[in-house]
Amino acid sequence: MLFQADYFDGLTARSQAVTVEVVTGIQPGIAFLADETKRAYPLSDIHVEAKLGSGKRIINLADGGRLEAGDIKPLEMILTQPNHKFHSVLHYLENHLAWVCLSLVLTLMTGWAFFEYGIPKLAGYVVNKTSAELETRLGEQVLGLFDHKFGYFHPSKTPVPKQSGIASGLHTLCASISDCPRYRLEFRDGGEIGANALTLPGGIIVLTDQLITLAKFDAEIIAVLAHELGHVKHRHAFRQSIQSVVSGLILAAVTGDASSTASGLSGFLLEMHYSQAHETQADHFALAALIKACLPPKAYADILLRLDPEGLNANRETGKNSEQPLAEQAEGLGNMLSTHPNTVNRIKPFLEAGTGCEK
Ligand SMILES: [Zn+2]
Predict the structure, then answer these.
(1) What is residue 316's three-state secondary structure?
(2) How is 31-54 classified by DSSP, letter by letter?
(3) Element housing 290 (H / E)
């Protein structure tokens, strides 16, 4: 397919008549002979200016040259082919790959920053604006769901005198610190959940029979409850619930799967996967409270190691006497250091606090 045109080389005002061949195939474009030199341009290297009235059609070439022609139908035919449009897009992307990558990275970073910082900030704002009464109602509803709908908890089998002893131990600890938050202690058989203490919104602390059985002294139970009081103090359960719901709603909007919102929330409340920062905050509260209440901080380290089954295994591998207080075995936890740095880092300040009694 051919058409006639005037060629300007872009360096001089001189023009010369040329016969332009329209090349089709894998690499479509145009080619012509000027000054006895064959010139070929792929479609990506030419730009056809819009038609102005009945004037000549102007084709700008990538090297600064120009063609002027009365009729460029053969060229227009391949320019309007869908295949060419696809190649044009590819060509654009190739030339703008850096921008495409940059915008992709920016989009991902914005999304990550929103989940990492935006949602916690939003949750903090909601927590501060929500009344304690509303939070308590939410906590009671969650406990009701766990008790009756999901059947995670069953009525406690711990004898009432034992329960009273623990409750009064926690009361004494609370009375000895100035910043004790309002809480409600609930005893339950943890069933499959096993040995655990968890905090629900509204200051509800659930203590399972299994944790009571696991503890060797009441001080260990009070130490765990002191940690939970730290979560209550900073309204972590409520804060994290809001974060889970907001993240779930966003994921549901993106994926179209609304079930993730509800399952995300109940999963969080049950597993209590607080952020590292929340755990550290609760540990600080617990340590200060134990010292003020004249209880041994080491008790917290002992029960934390006993709660961590891998920590227990690591202890057995060290060959130490399992009857020996676990905290005393801490120096022998070489292999646990590598597998469980979090637990070891967490118990360290409790072991270093000595007897912890200020009186
Ligand atoms: Zn915690």
Answers:
(1) helix
(2) EEEETTEEEEEEGGGEEEPPP-TT
(3) helix 276-292
Residue 231 Cα to ligand 1 midpoint, Å, equals 7
> What confidence score (pLDDT) does residue 359 get?
55
In which domain, by residue range, is 193 found? 113-295
Return d(Cα 247, Cα 75) in angstroms, integer: 53
In a domain, 105, yes or no: no
Q: Is 135 in the same domain as 227? A: yes
How far apart, in Å, do the first and last CA atoms of the chain sit? 102
CA of 224 from ligand 1 middle (Å) equals: 9
CA of 227 to the centre of ligand 1 (A): 6
Label residue 140 exposed, middle or buried (CB < 10 Å: 0-12, 13-18, 19+). middle
CA of 196 to the centre of ligand 1 (A): 10
Predicted confidence (pLDDT) at residue 328 exceeds the cutoff of 50:
no
Element (H, E) at 224: helix 218-233
Q: Give the Cα separation of 341 and 252 in Å (integer).
A: 34
Please indicate, yes or no, if residue 308 is contained in any of the structural domains: no
Distance 294 CA to ligand 1 centre (A): 21
86 and 117 in a single domain? The answer is no
Q: Which two tokens stand for residue 305?
A: 């190691």
- Cα separation, 269 vs 237, in Å, equals 7
Determine the Cα–Cα distance for residues 70 and 64; give it in Å rounded to an integer. Answer: 20
Which residue reads 């540990």 in tokens? Answer: 283
Same domain for 62 and 182: no
Name the residue with tokens 């619930």: 241
> Do 48 and 143 lie in a common domain?
no
**Residues with Cβ within 8 Å of residue 42, at least 6 apart in sequence:** 27, 28, 29
* Average pLDDT value for residue range 203-226: 94
Proportion of the chain in helix, strand, coil states, percent, rounded to 5: 60, 15, 25
Instruction: Give pLDDT tens digits for 92-138.
Output: 666 677 777 887 888 887 777 777 777 777 777 877 787 888 888 88
Same domain as 136, residue 48 = no
